[in-house]
TrEMBL record:
The keyword Nucleotide-binding does not apply. SUPFAM superfamilies: 4Fe-4S ferredoxins. It comes from Streptomyces viridiviolaceus. Pfam families: Fer4_13. This is Ferredoxin. Keywords: 3Fe-4S, Electron transport, Iron, Iron-sulfur, Metal-binding, Transport. Its cofactor is [3Fe-4S] cluster. InterPro entries: Fe-S_cluster_ET. It comes from the Bacteria.
Length: 75
């Protein structure tokens, strides 16, 4: 599983991420970015491209190997 975080204070709505990984990132209007907080391993390559393409480095991608049940304290 891949965990995604976007620093929305940095995000300028350039939409590079929405173009490169549309399954994860969607731009609503001109500046509101919506994204899935978690994605499948299959999205990893696209996420890496989106992360690299973000002009303001707002995207953080974390690969989580442990099953999500093992993660606590994040709710
Ligand atoms: S590429 Fe970066 S700045 Fe552009 S919409 Fe995505 S997160 Fe925001």
């Amino acid at each position: 599983m891949v965990r995604i975080a976007v620093d929305l204070n940095r995000c300028q709505g350039y939409a590079q991420c929405a173009f490169l990984a549309p399954e994860v990132f969607t731009l609503h209007g001109e500046e509101v970015l919506l994204y899935a907080p978690e994605a499948d391993e299959a999205q990893r390559e696209k996420l890496a491209q989106a992360t690299a393409a973000c002009p303001v480095q707002a995207i953080l991608v974390d690969v989580v190997d442990a099953p999500s049940e093992a993660v606590s304290g994040d709710r």
